[in-house]
Specification:
Layout (H helix, E strand, L loop, with lengths): L3 E2 L7 E2 L5 H19 L10 H8 L3 H7 L3 H14 L5 H4 L3 H11 L7 H25 L1 H14 L5 H31 L2 E3 L5 H18 L5 H4 L1 E4 L8 E4 H11 L2 E3 L7 H13 L1 H4 L1
Antiparallel strand pairs: 1-2, 3-6, 4-5
Helix pairs in contact: 1-2, 4-9, 6-7, 7-12, 9-10, 10-12
Length: about 280
C-alpha cells in the first residue's frame, strides 16, 4: 500500500511502500518501546493497538492484513518480548565489574589470611549491592522481565505458552550462566571455592532468585531500598555500612563458598592477582 503526505510546500509526496515484514518489524519495535517505557502488567490490555500503529508510522490496512485481530498481535508481541527477556546485569550496571575489581584490589591484603577471604568477597558484594539493587529496582527492563513471567503463568496451554516458556528458560540459563562466570572468576581469583557438592551455577541461581524476590517485595516494603546500618556480619577488620539487599545476597553467596586450602597466597601470587585486577581481566569475564 502507498500512502500520501503533504509537506509544507503543499505538494503531495508518496511515502515509501513497506513490505509486510517491515510493517511487522516497525509495529513490534514500537510496542516493545511502549512496554519498556510504561512497563508490562499481567496483561497487555493497557497497550492501545491504534497508538502502536500511529507510533510505528505504518498503514492501518497493512497492519490489519497481518493481524486481523489485536489478540494475534499481542501474541506475537509476547513472543518478541520473551526473545529479548534477559536483562543482563552488566547492561543494567556497566561499571559493576570494574568497581568490583577496584574494591578487591583495595582490600587484597585480606586474602593473605584464609579466614578473611570471605570477608574480602563480602566487601566486594556489599559495595556492589549498595548501588546495584537501586538500579535494578528502577529498571523498566527488569520490571518487564518479572511481569512477563507472571503473564506467562496466565497463558492457556498451547503453542504460545510453549514458545514463551522456552524463551524464558533460555533467558534464565543465559542470565545465570553470566552471573556464575563472574562469581567463579572473582571467587577463584581471591582464593575461594564452592562448598562440596555446590557449583557456581547454583550459587548464581540462588543469588538471582534472592535479588528477584527483593525487587518484588520493595514496592510494599520501601525500607528494603532505603535502610542502611552499620554491621560486620562476615568478620571484616571493621564494620561497614550495609543495606538489606547487600546483606541478603552476600549471605546467600558466602553461605556456599569457603577458602580454598590449595591456594598458597605468596607475595608472587598476590602480585599476579593484583595485575589481573588492574588489567581488567575480571571486568572482561
Amino acid at each position: 500500500m502507498v500512502t500520501r503526505e503533504t509537506p509544507e510546500s503543499g505538494l503531495v509526496r508518496r511515502r515509501k511502500r513497506l513490505s509486510d515484514e517491515e510493517t511487522a518489524r516497525r509495529m513490534l519495535d514500537a510496542a516493545t518501546a511502549t512496554v519498556e517505557e510504561a512497563g508490562l502488567t499481567v496483561s497487555l490490555e493497557h497497550i492501545s493497538f491504534e497508538e502502536i500503529i500511529r507510533d510505528a508510522g505504518v498503514a492501518r490496512s497493512a497492519v490489519y492484513r497481518r493481524w486481523p485481530y489485536k489478540d494475534l498481535f499481542f501474541s506475537d508481541l509476547l513472543r518478541e518480548l520473551a526473545k529479548g527477556a534477559s536483562p543482563a546485569i552488566t547492561e543494567a550496571n556497566p561499571g559493576a565489574s570494574q568497581a568490583a575489581a577496584r574494591t578487591a584490589l583495595a582490600h587484597l591484603g585480606w586474602a593473605r589470611t584464609p579466614g578473611l577471604r570471605r570477608a574480602l568477597a563480602a566487601e566486594v558484594l556489599r559495595e556492589g549491592a549498595l548501588g546495584e539493587f537501586g538500579i535494578f529496582h528502577r529498571s523498566s527492563a527488569w520490571r518487564t522481565y518479572l511481569a512477563l513471567q507472571a503473564t506467562f503463568r496466565s497463558l492457556p496451554d498451547g503453542d504460545l505458552r510453549a514458545e514463551v516458556q522456552q524463551a524464558l528458560t533460555e533467558s534464565e540459563r543465559s542470565m545465570v550462566a553470566g552471573v556464575a562466570t563472574a562469581y567463579s572468576w572473582g571467587a577463584r581469583l581471591i582464593g575461594l571455592r564452592p562448598c562440596a557438592g555446590v557449583t557456581f551455577e547454583t550459587v548464581a541461581r540462588l543469588a538471582v532468585a534472592t535479588l528477584r524476590g527483593l525487587i518484588l517485595m520493595a514496592p510494599g516494603n520501601p525500607e528494603i531500598v532505603t535502610r542502611r546500618f552499620q554491621a560486620n556480619p562476615f568478620g571484616a577488620p571493621e564494620p561497614a555500612e550495609w543495606s538489606e539487599p547487600a546483606l541478603a545476597i552476600t549471605s546467600v553467596v558466602l553461605g556456599l563458598l569457603e577458602a580454598d586450602p590449595e591456594v598458597e597466597w605468596t607475595d608472587e601470587h598476590e602480585r599476579s592477582v593484583a595485575a589481573a585486577l588492574r588489567s581488567g581481566r575480571w571486568a572482561a569475564s
